[in-house]
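Intended use. Records like the one below are meant for learning the mapping from a protein sequence to its folded structure. Do not use them to infer anything beyond what is encoded.
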Amino acid sequence: MKQLLLFTSILMGLFCNEARADGFETATQAVQNMGVGWNLGNTLDANNQSVTNISSASYWGQQGLDSETCWGQPTTTAALITMMKNAGFGAIRVPVTWYNHMDSNGNVNAAWMARVKEVVDYVIDAGLYCIINVHHDTGADSNTSKHWIHASTTSYNNNKTRYENLWRQIANEFKSYGDKLLFEGYNEMLDEYNSWCWPSRSYNNAENGYTESIATASYNAINNYAQSFVNAVRGTGGNNVNRNLIVNTYAASSGGRWNTHCNDPLTKLNKPSGENNHIIFEVHTYPNISNLNSAKTDVANMFTDINSYLKTKAPVIIGEWGTSNVDNGSDYANNRTNMINFLDYFVKKAKDNNIATFYWMGLTDGVNRSLPAFNQADLAQTIVNAYHGSISGYQFPTPDDFQTIYTVNYTQEWSEAFLYGDWNRTAQSLSNYKGILVEMEDDSYAGKLQIKVYGVKNGTNPDGSDKFKEQYAQFASGSSSTMVTFDASILGSTFWGVTLQTLSGAMTAKVKKVTLIKADNSEISLSVTSAWGCTVTSESTPINTSIQNLQPDMSKTDDAIYNLNGQRVNTPQKGIYIRNGKKFIMK
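Structure written out for the chain above:
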């Protein structure tokens, strides 16, 4: 009897899947059902170039699987995606960069495709919508980074075959997946002059230039790439015949009213031919919120223009959004009241206009993704509350729900681990902060460690390196913690980094907690990362039983190492693992 029921269940599943393949959600239905989304940014899209000459064979396939962590984010886990689902998010956009994992013909490395599939499965298995795309294969060129896809006739003619081959491989890999998986053809495609907002804006270094021939060719290229993307995917058959596909405006521009050409990217984007109910248009936006009323006015105008110029052709998502300083964190640190107010307004306005939104990358960042926890839980709650009308029943774990011990292994005299900031030196106004509290695991560090705070630049050292104002504090005998009160008379008006420095050469230190104290006495929990001359690992244990369900159930006690899928690992690489029932990070 059990066998008969199982057989019947399988037949019913096959029948339902077949029926579903013939009746995919329309694009409008998908956008309506996504809810609020989040970008898994700086992860599968992260990339570094040692060769920037696109005509060189060495430009292609420059990295291995370690590219996922090369911009400082940890290896993605299923637990992170489960956390986003439990917090009330309905969709995850997974940006993916491909050039560094494929040959010059667009043939993708099998291991990379398998890793992308693994992350997609995390999202789909959690019951969320998932978008994958071709991400930093497009973008603004610099001296250290060149992109192979541009909005120009030359780029399209040179790359059409390679581009279509890439999308056929992606489409074939996922052709059996259901309608919660969507493909996005390209990210922020610019002309060959790196023009934002509209093509030819930066031609001949013009600030707001416009050259009709360049603009026309660029819009034609955008539409040609969009058509090639659609043709390649549809041609693979299976569920891809009806899969919802996404194409972006030029530069993913959302328009504007400060120049007569701002809305051209909206009006010039065509729906690919042969398409009806399974195409979505995408734009991005990052308003400046220093003047909140002005930002809200700009957003209201943006939605009006999107409705007028894009939604008349296809439904729309905002695939990336945030505030103008969302990446460097200064809006969150220094302008949080405006930020929370703006996020609430933006999500409600988008929902009123039936436009799905995907917040860019913040909310959970760095080591917090490994716990997993929200280091900006108030922002996550604001977004979810604005969409759902409540946060009741949703979970927002924070680092305080975990006990994390950071082990710093110093290899030489004066080497340092970052407690705050990094060598990029994003300065913060000293008037916004009081100091930093560091708690060690025990009281054995007197005379062995010191806290070092970097202030404003103060000239140049004899060897040509930067010289900064610095404040120091050592641990007292018999104390496991120390508080450094920032001193403006020493540091100047800003600080950009705080490190834990060894005074005893090679040694091991265990850090229990680091807390940045703001001027209003609010606290920010920080993580420990390597600066130079040391390695940092960490072990985290949930101390809040309500978040236990976010963690994989791995109660191994034989000192063996397992990955988060329960598979034993003999030689762990960078990533998150389980040993003796506890999670640790290998960096």
